[in-house]
# Entry
Amino acid sequence: MKDILKTPDPVKLSFAQSVLNDAGIDNFVLDEGMSNLYGGGIDFVTKRLAVANEDAGEAQRLLAEAFRDAEGE
# Structure
């Protein structure tokens, strides 16, 4: 497994998951329950999005393209 995105932003994380799901790349959110250690509801806890090692290159390319398009560049 390889981390391809680290973010505390749930919208960015959801967008990245949608891009990868649409491409058929299995992905997993890690550290999602970490805010529970602090009583829940803490948005600054960074979550990691991971994929299988063999999918990492393609996933990174897709996300770079999707985020560039989303920002209008």
Summary: Strands lie at 2-7, 27-30, 47-51.
